[in-house]
């Protein structure tokens, strides 16, 4: 099918976008280990038959990490519309309709409400001050988010952020969870403070500094997180639900080792995600720490297991 293709490299992906720059392009980021992605590939095939002038691209998220990182992909079976053409809303509806068909495969809407609430609670409490915004502090993607980032920066407020554009489930769920319909949203110690207008009022009244926790440097925060448990794993997702194949593999190895460990979801905290790369001079995730020292990523852990050294390393004996 001419308008449905698989991109296997960054160069090929960029060439496809360049050649189709004047039309709508739909990209499905998939993972071979996730059954729901197989269903969504069938959805892509059906859509491609109907929309001849739209380019449909399948891309294995973990095989081309440069693209996944660029678009901040945190979930397989995620569709990105790279050009908002006239058919984008129609395609969105068809993806949702076709994706919710039978077949017994898991799909995005299957998460129970109580599970979503637990996830939201974890995200809200991921840092003493959490900002849910459109984009990141480095690249805000709306005027309101840009303003609130500038205010927090001007007043030296230490905070972590979550890009609600990267996760539609969180974006919609948080509105109901906190009964607050708009973004950005600021939380302090797990409690909703409000949005941009509230922050502006606190600035005008001189109460802003007293509202937020005392500033802790990023370096000290990273040291605290690394030493939170004798064995700490920084990954995409958590023990219950890994969100990339590398994290899923390292969880399997860790669980088979019989050693107690804690995890930190770097997808819920962009500051930690970027800061830890520099702090430990290790550019990728997952990252495993034992007694505050970096052991390495998946490849290192695999080698230790193969050499029979993993158990002693996890116990801090080596």
Automatic annotation (TrEMBL):
Classification via SUPFAM superfamilies: Thioredoxin-like (SSF52833)
GO biological process, one term: intracellular iron ion homeostasis
GO CC terms in record: cytosol; nucleus
The Thioredoxin domain, residue ranges: 1-125
Signal peptide (residue range): none
Superkingdom as given in the UniProt entry: Eukaryota
Record keyword Metal-binding present: yes
Matches recorded under PANTHER family: GLUTAREDOXIN FAMILY MEMBER (PTHR10293), GLUTAREDOXIN-3 (PTHR10293:SF73)
Protein name: Glutaredoxin 3
Organism: Cyprinus carpio carpio
């Amino acid at each position: 099918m001419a308008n449905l293709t698989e991109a296997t490299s960054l160069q090929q992906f960029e060439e496809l976008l360049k050649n189709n720059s004047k039309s709508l392009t739909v990209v499905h980021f998939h993972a071979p280990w996730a059954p729901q992605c197989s269903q969504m590939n069938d959805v892509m095939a059906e859509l491609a038959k109907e929309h001849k002038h739209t380019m449909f691209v399948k891309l294995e998220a973990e095989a081309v990490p440069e693209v996944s990182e660029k678009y901040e992909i945190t979930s397989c079976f995620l569709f990105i519309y790279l050009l908002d053409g006239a058919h984008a809303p129609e395609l969105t509806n068809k993806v949702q309709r076709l994706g919710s068909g039978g077949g017994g495969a898991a799909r995005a809407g299957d998460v129970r409400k109580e599970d979503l609430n637990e996830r939201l609670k974890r995200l809200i409490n991921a840092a003493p001050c959490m900002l849910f915004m459109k984009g990141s502090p480095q690249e805000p993607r709306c005027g309101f988010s840009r303003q609130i980032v500038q205010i927090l920066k001007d007043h030296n407020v230490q905070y972590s952020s979550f890009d609600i554009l990267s996760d539609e489930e969180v974006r919609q769920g948080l509105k109901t969870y906190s009964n607050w319909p708009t973004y950005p949203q600021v939380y302090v110690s797990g409690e909703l403070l409000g949005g941009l207008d509230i922050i502006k009022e606190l600035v005008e009244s001189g109460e802003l500094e007293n509202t937020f926790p005392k500033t802790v440097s990023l370096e000290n925060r990273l040291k605290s997180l690394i030493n939170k448990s004798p064995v700490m794993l920084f990954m995409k997702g958590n023990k219950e639900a890994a969100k990339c194949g590398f994290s899923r593999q390292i969880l399997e190895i860790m669980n088979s080792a019989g050693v107690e460990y804690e995890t930190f979801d770097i997808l819920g905290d962009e500051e930690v995600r970027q800061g830890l790369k520099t702090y430990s001079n290790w550019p990728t995730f997952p990252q495993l720490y034992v007694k505050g020292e970096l052991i390495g990523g998946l490849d290192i852990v695999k080698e230790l297991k193969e050499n029979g050294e993993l158990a002693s390393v996890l116990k801090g004996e080596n």
